[in-house]
Amino acid sequence: MTTKAMLQFVSRDKEMPAKRGAEARRQDFREIYDDFNDEKAAAQAGRCSQCGVPFCQTHCPLQNNIPDWLMLTAEGRMQEAYEISAATNTFPEICGRICPQDRLCEGNCVIEKGFESVTIGAVERHITETAFENGWVKPPQPMSERGESIGIIGAGPAGLSAAEQLRRQGYQITIYDRYDRVGGLLIYGIPGFKLEKEVVARREALLREGGIEFVLNCHIGSDISFDEIKKKHDAVLIATGVYKARQIDLAGQTETDDQMVAALDFLTASNRRGLGDTVAEYESGQLNVKGKNIVVIGGGDTAMDCVRTAIRQDAKSVSCVYRRDRANMPGSAREVMNAEEEGVAFEWLSQPTGLSRDKNGKVNGVICQRSRLGAADASGRQRPEPITDSEYTLDADMVIMALGFDPEDMPNMFHEPRLKVSRWGTIGIDWRSMMTSVDGVFAAGDIVRGASLVVWGIRDGRDAATHIDEWLTRQAAEKADASIQQAQHAGI
Ligand code: FAD
Ligand code: SF4
Ligand code: SF4
Known about the structure:
Layout: H1 22-25, H2 38-45, H3 55-58, H4 66-74, H5 78-88, H6 92-98, H7 120-133, E1 149-153, H8 157-168, E2 172-176, H9 185-188, H10 197-209, E3 213-215, H11 226-232, E4 235-238, E5 244-245, E6 260-262, H12 263-274, H13 280-283, E7 293-297, H14 301-312, E8 317-321, H15 333-342, E9 345-347, E10 350-357, E11 363-376, E12 382-395, E13 398-401, E14 405-406, E15 441-443, H16 446-449, H17 454-489
Parallel strand pairs: 1-2, 1-4, 2-3, 4-15, 6-13, 7-8, 7-13, 8-9
Antiparallel strand pairs: 5-14, 10-11, 11-12
Helix pairs in contact: 2-4, 2-7, 4-5, 4-7, 5-7, 6-7, 8-17, 12-14, 14-15
The structure holds flavin-adenine dinucleotide and iron/sulfur cluster (SF4) (2 copies).
The site of one iron/sulfur cluster has 14 residues, from helix 3 and helix 4.
């Protein structure tokens, strides 16, 4: 039943948590939004109208029970709100910070336009931050131990959420990762101004405390063979993400142009520096944008992270070139707005075609051609069409390419020809069991979906955990049946 605390959207405006001013944000890599306090969270949660059919929930990949935890927050019942929130989401404080809510839960909140949606993400974050402050967030604690061991390849959101859930069920979990830190793209892709690294490290500590083992700096396929991992564990989950940067062909580009940089190389270097590492390519100037004119090509969230990182590294100018218009940009509208506030110049409806060079042959500009939106293509999106005689040049000392990612060379990375892949190179699974074409080997996250979102990685990891548990339980039952039959046969 809806209480007095709810349905306040008519009289109370939507408010986001306080956002730091653009000038202050440009100086560091700290998150830009504050956490709500209890009072603000309760007031904003109370704007929810407690829909009978909550579209916010339907459009949340985790099907979070949003109306219930909003009501509990509005009533100040924070521990119950946390328990309901944590029941469906392994890392709610992370999703609350970095889900593109304007495309998911909040974008589908039915409160009429003009009143504006409920601030769901910020409330979700506040609930879990309150839980951390009060010691309600516990490491995974199994009721009883199980003997079976599970090897997980990849310590990103998909691998970690599967690990957490399987450990709760008592399995012995080892996570392998080729990086030296836990978190996948949460650590080395997403910049600190969206997600501070301490937030990820806090979860890592809980997982370790719960008994999950990590083997880092370990590339499966070269340091340890995939076959060895399979032999060592009763089940294996592949959650290796997608890392092969898509390329663009620009006239005049050569393979030796070290001013052409892949987005993830740039972001990883920046994140490593923030974590205190010395990065040779930054020190040498190759990945250091200070005082340079920077052009970022692409219109997704990775491009937004690159432009905003370049601003914080004190670039002379930062432009983002995208071939469609603002309305058709794949990146979150909120991130575009934040980038604009911080001083990024957007070149909408503009297609890079070539590079210009100075008299020494160094790249000094990107040649672009204006475009207009034409007829829709098969995907329903309007196709950009070049406008003749509209070329112009943007100054560029460094060009960052943020055009998306494809899977690395699977199944060759694992030397496992039985592992079936799709025509896009992603690992094929049976969606009813999340098992690959190799018995006992499951897969989840971006390596199955292609480049996606953290919240989908968490969802897939949780689903994979459920299927692995079912499969191992079935295997154990079959083994037990077989030994009973053997014993009966032997007349024992
Ligand atoms: P990953 O996070 O990529 O983790 C895979 C792990 O597997 C890595 O740690 C890798 O080192 C390891 N690995 C790979 N191969 C091997 C091997 N052979 N042996 C051992 N280990 C291996 N999503 C959002 O929801 N919000 C955002 O704001 C957002 N911003 C993003 C910004 C950037 C720059 C990028 C690149 C992505 C962003 N995403 C965002 C997408 C999101 O990060 C991914 O969808 C998500 O991390 C996928 O999770 P995953 O666990 O499948 O893979
Ligand atoms: Fe919204 Fe993401 Fe939270 Fe779901 S997990 S409620 S989509 S912020
Ligand atoms: Fe509340 Fe909006 Fe969800 Fe309806 S759609 S339950 S108003 S948050």
